[in-house]
Structure formats: C-alpha cells, structure tokens
C-alpha cells in the first residue's frame, strides 16, 4: 500500500500509455477494416478461387455456374503444363524478357533521376513533365500509338528507314526498301519493340522515385566525396547507391512484378493471342482459359505458376536486400 | 495521391454495392417468364436499315403474338464471345440470338444453344436451305442453329490499274501472279496483292482449288490433309507470293484480312481478298474507290474458280430460354424467304435458300457477280466442335503459312508440323 501511494506519480506515468494503448492499438485496425474487407473480397477471395480452380477439370461455363459438377483432377493440370514443351518456350520468353526489362528500366530510370537532380529548377520541371507524360499515358493508348509508329507501310519508323541513304541502308541491313517490312515478324524483333514500349512506359516511375530518394541525401556527402577527388562513377557507387539501397530494392521488386506480368502491351502489339511463339505466362494463361474452347482449370494453373514464380523471385530478392542492410 | 488512396476503398465498396444491387434488380426476369417479352440479340452495331427491317419483322410476328414485346439488343461482333460467356455463367441470356456460323458448333458444345432438330424438320422452308450451311450448324448430328445469311470471299481489284497495265482479271494461279507483277511494275510503291498471311479462310480457297483437304474424318479419327502433295502445292503457292514472286511484302505474314483490305482501300494494293459484305467498309475508308473497283472469283490452279468457305450468320435459340416455342415462331418469321432475301440483299450478303441464290439477279452487278458465281461452289471447315481450337486458339493454319513466309520453316516442315498439331487437337479425348 505504502509503496503504491509513494509511487503514484511514476505509476501514473507508466500507466497512462499502458491504458491508452488498447485504444491506440485498435483504432488503426478499425480504420484498416474497410480496406481489408475490400482486399479480402476483391483480391484474396478470387485468388483463392483461382488456386482452387487449378485443381479441377473445368472446360464449360456451366461448371462455373454450378450446373455441372467439378471433376477433381489433383495436379493433372500442372503436370500437363509442365510436360508441354511449349511451356518451356513461354517460361524462357517470360524470364528473359523480365530480366532485360527490369535491368533496362532501372538503368534508364536511375540515369534520368540523376539528371533531374542536377538540372536547374526550370529545366528539371520541363524534363520531369515530359517524362511523366509517358508514365501518364494509359498502356493501351500508348501501345496503339507505338504500333502505328512501327506500321509496315505508313509508320514513322518505316519512313525513317526509307530516308536512310540507299547505300548505307544496303550496307547495314542488306536492303534499302523498307516499305512493307514486317517489324513484328521475327520473335526477337517483336521482343525488342515490346521492350522499347514497356521500358518507355515504366522508366518515369523509377526516375521520379530515384529523384525523391536523391533529394533526401544530404548534399554535403556528395560535396565531401568530390572534394576528396571521387569522380561521378565513384560517387554514385560509394555514396548514392548505398544510401538509396532500400529505394532501389523496392523499385527492383516492383519492376520485377510488373515486367513478369506484362499483358496489355503484348496483346496490342501482337494483335491478340495469335502469335504463339512470343507468348509469355500472363497471355498464355489468358489464351488457355478464355479462347474457345475454354480451359479454365489449365488457365488457372498457369496463373498460379506465375504467382509462385513471382513470390519466389521477389521473396529471394527482399531477403537479400534485408540481409545486406543488416551487415 | 494520398487522398485518392484513402478514397479508393470507399469507391470500391460503393461500386461493388452498386453492382450487387444492379444484380439483384436484374434477376426479376424469372417471374416475367410469361410471354410479354422476347429478347433478341443481334450482332454488330445495328444500322438504320437493319433496325427498320427488324421493326417490320416484329410487326409480322405480333400478328400472331400481339401481347409479346420484342426487345432487340445489338452486340458488337468482338464482344459477342464475352457476352455469351457471361450470359451462360450468370443464367441471364437472350431467347433468340444471331451468331457467326463458325462459332455455332463451339457454343453448342458449351450447351449454350437449344437443339432445334425436331422443330427444323417440321418447317417446310428449311428444305431449301443450302446443305453445307445446314451441316455447319450441326453438332453430333443435332441441329443447333438455322442459317440466316451467307457470303463468300472473292478478290477485289483496281480496274483502272489493271487497264493501265494491260491485264485482265486472272483465271488461274499463273495469271494471278503475272497480273500482280504487271501492276507492280506499272505502279511502283504498291503491292500486287494484299495477302492476309495471318488469316486462314482465303487460303482455304487455294487449298481446295488445288484439290487438298483440311482434315477428313476417317472412321471416327481425324486425318489432316496438309501432308498431301495437293496441300503442299497450295501452301507453296500461297507463301511464294511473298517469298518468291514478291507481289506481297514480308509484313503480309502478319496481316489479317482487315489489315490487308485496308491496304487495298487506301490505294496501296492492286488486289485484296474480301467478302461481298465488306464492300461497305472499303468504301468507308475510301469513297472514291467505288468508281475503280471490280471483283473476280478466287482462281484455282487450272482455270476454274476455286471453292470458297461459306461464311455468314446463324440464328439460334438459347438453351436457358423458357420461351422456346415463342422464340421459334420469331425465328421462322425472321428467316422466311421474303424477309431473308430483303435483309441479305441490304447487307451485301446472299440469302441461304438455294432457289433464291440461283434466281437472284446478280449477273449484271459489277461486284456481286463474282460472289454469286462462287456461292455455287462452297465448302465448310471440319465439322467438329474441336475445330475452333485449331482455327482460333492454336491458329494452326495461320502459323503454318506465316512460318514459311517468315523463312522459319520449309513447306514440308511446316505442313508436317501443322498436320501433327491439328490431329492431336482434333483427336484429343
């Protein structure tokens, strides 16, 4: 009793936060609740359904409706996909494309971010607005415009190549007449153009994020390094990169996720789901599930495989980043 | 940004609530299963002429069913598969629907359409419908759709350029190449023929013209005809137009029929494949072209016109409809000979009744004459619901031709691979 009376002051000081804590703790969850409900209903539930569907043989809309039973096939959809040699092509396309695009997007985005940091205010605003326009263009419209640019008869690129001096064009490419050239004919060229479109769409986000990171780096650090005689290359790798490592980490993870599931740009450039040699996982899943005759089970299984690959890739990467930070 | 993030869940909740409410509102149709309303889905955007025609059909139909209101909804062609899938999944569909005749078997296999075999045999006018078209709407011997109108492809050409180059519409394959080369020489910067390398239907005319077959059913198992010398001859000719004769550009390997037709409409090509119904679209791209165009049937190798695929539309009853008697009555009014002829004509198609095609006055029409000739000699693609997978999903024929045009495979390799893939799909259990 005595100790308690003696200690009221400190006890109260200790108790106040303790008493407040339940209220403070519950509120964020209450506020989050609508969001969680939406995420649950619109994201987790369909996700669970896709996983469930991948274990059934589903090839009729009437099954989705519940008019027909769902025959359980276990892992048959997965074994069928993994045994198909076409899956290897698709997987190779997806992984190579994602790797190339993440690398190019990161490099270009970082360079533009660094540039924006060095520019004066007016010029920075101008360049940033131009860059943001590319980002603000919806994927669908942007890609349609790119498709026109590469049109085989009236496209800008065809016109430019036709403007090359005939001799030069002949020496470089072995042809001087580019009218009617099939820009999307070979898978390699198709992927090159697709990479151009996707990188064009996604580097602005990287640039702006890197710029935001750079603004938080104290300029004294850079000045000090420069005074000590470090060139721009060294400054970047010794000062900027280590300080911005978390930013780069997040950006690489996001880019990986985005570039693994590119769909719109490919669908538009390829003109639908006809160009099978250039399939990647997302369009493969869509084509299997929804092209007639529908195979919802197989399509779901491909989607699950894509999700698993993404989880593994990003999981490994996040662990790597976290570990580096601990060191 | 932050404000939007905070608003997003609210918007989503409101939106989903709205969808739920809308869904509830829409399900009141079951009680209305009385005959006060008949829902009809038509494909396309619905021109004034079509609306007026359908109003006339409704008036005629209501003479027998005065209490029924016919509600026509237009579905864009490209939207149709999604709309059908949604209707089938949700259980809220039309009573009567139009659908492309290449899709009827596929939707019949999905149990979307009602079996009308019995009703059809009791309907006298159906006896005159072209037999190929009737067969094309069957699955396992049962009738799931009734042909409404039909059309075939021929070749559109520039009469002025042909005159300048001094060539006549070609009658065989050799003349086709010669005419294309002559025009190309006279008109630098144009293509002799806009070849849709990524489409299958125009190619089938060359395949059938050479005496080849896509696939034949031999005692319950499908055998692809692509490895025969006739088929390989057709593939060789079709792809040689790009790779050897160079009367079409390399880009043609990726062109579909619309891409190719646009080359013709915009004055970039002397010839293009097209159906009679596409005349309107070509004119829309270039109203002037009407003065300088003509058509001729797709030639065979030997001087006779090649057979063509009979495209068009079927009318079907929706399997989930509770008013099938009423729907069939509407169908027989819509498809009676008088209405069929007036509607097909207004669209640039042909009626499906053999007597009407034969007696129609097409011989003096500078566009329709070639199509009318070809209508006498039509063929259909393999009659199995699995065909749609070969044709649309795996695009076996298109890929075969494109790979040869792109120089990725030889004719022998490409045809062998395509035949194997086709057989594995058609014979899958």
Automatic annotation (TrEMBL), chain A:
Look up the record and report any one GO term of the cellular component aspect: plasma membrane
As for subcellular location, the record says:
Cell membrane
Q: Which UniProt keywords apply?
A: Cell membrane, Membrane, Transmembrane, Transmembrane helix, Transport
TM region(s), chain numbering: 29-48, 95-116, 123-149, 188-214, 235-258, 296-318
Q: Name one GO biological process term.
A: transmembrane transport
Q: Is Mitochondrion given among the entry's keywords?
A: no
Mode of membrane association: Multi-pass membrane protein
Quick one: where is this thing mainly located?
membrane
Domain ABC transmembrane type-1 intervals: 91-317
Q: Does the keyword Heme apply?
A: no
**In terms of domain of life, where is this protein from?**
Bacteria
Q: Which family does it belong to?
A: Belongs to the binding-protein-dependent transport system permease family.
This protein is called N,N'-diacetylchitobiose transport system permease protein
Species source reads: Micromonospora halophytica
UniProtKB/TrEMBL annotation, chain B:
GO: which molecular function terms? maltose binding
Q: What Gene Ontology cellular component terms go with this record? A: ATP-binding cassette (ABC) transporter complex, substrate-binding subunit-containing
Question: Where does the signal peptide begin and end?
Answer: 1-22
Q: Which CDD domains match?
A: PBP2_MalE
Instruction: For this UniProt record, give its keywords in alphabetical order, as a comma-separated list.
Output: Signal, Transport
Q: Which InterPro entries does the UniProt entry name for this protein?
A: SBP (IPR006059)
**GO BP terms:** maltodextrin transmembrane transport; maltose transport
Pfam families named in the record: SBP_bac_1
Question: Family per UniProt?
Answer: Belongs to the bacterial solute-binding protein 1 family.
**Name of protein:** N,N'-diacetylchitobiose transport system substrate-binding protein
Q: Which organism is it from?
A: Micromonospora halophytica
List the top taxonomic levels of the source.
Bacteria, Bacillati, Actinomycetota, Actinomycetes, Micromonosporales
